[in-house]
Write a structure and sequence with these properties.
Length: 180
């Protein structure tokens, strides 16, 4: 009888010991982090609300235009950093202007299906009377999401002219990171 009780007690210790060595919750497989958004996951456009339109008629201060990205995929994805923005102009002398980046630090933005995030572009409008060589007349914006190579082509809907500073080291027309 003693050997049977010892065997049962030993079996109980083995089972209890096994339960005590179960995998802790911290070692359980973690839910995968969402991966970055690709151009094909997104839609893009200019924000058109009254409070989002740049004041291109005034020429005394900077104004802002906003471009949005919407996650149209069925998965959650992330955007972090600066979009690439190249403006093409209507004048023969305009060419293409790749916008400089601000010094603001980007943050990681998580976009679930249908979520939208935007970024701003600071612009310095000038009067129509400004000499042609000093102004840039926007026609289209080629907008590349952060860390991507394919772009969206957006027609500039706001009119006006911008002070041409495509060669400046600290231009008054520049872009901010996504989400800021």
């Amino acid at each position: 009888m003693k050997s049977k009780l010892t065997a049962v007690a030993l079996a109980a210790v083995v089972v209890a010991g096994t339960a005590a060595t179960a995998i802790p919750a911290s070692a359980a497989p973690a839910k995968a982090e969402p991966t970055r958004c690709h151009t094909a996951d997104l839609k893009a456009g200019f924000a058109m609300g009254d409070d989002a339109k740049p004041e291109m008629e005034q020429t005394k201060k900077q104004t802002q235009a906003y471009i949005w990205f919407t996650n149209q995929s069925k998965r959650t994805c992330t955007l972090s950093g600066f979009a690439g923005v190249d403006m093409t102009g209507t004048q023969k002398t305009d060419g293409t202007w790749s916008l400089a980046r601000s010094s603001k630090k980007p943050e990681k933005m998580i976009l679930k299906q249908g979520d939208t995030v935007d970024f701003s572009i600071n612009l310095l409008p000038v009067a129509k009377s400004t000499p042609q060589k000093e102004k840039f007349v926007p026609a289209k914006f080629l907008v590349t999401p952060p860390n991507e190579t394919e772009h969206f082509t957006l027609k500039w809907p706001f009119g006006g002219q911008i002070l041409k500073q495509d060669g400046a080291t600290r231009p008054a027309t520049y872009l901010n990171p996504v989400g800021l």
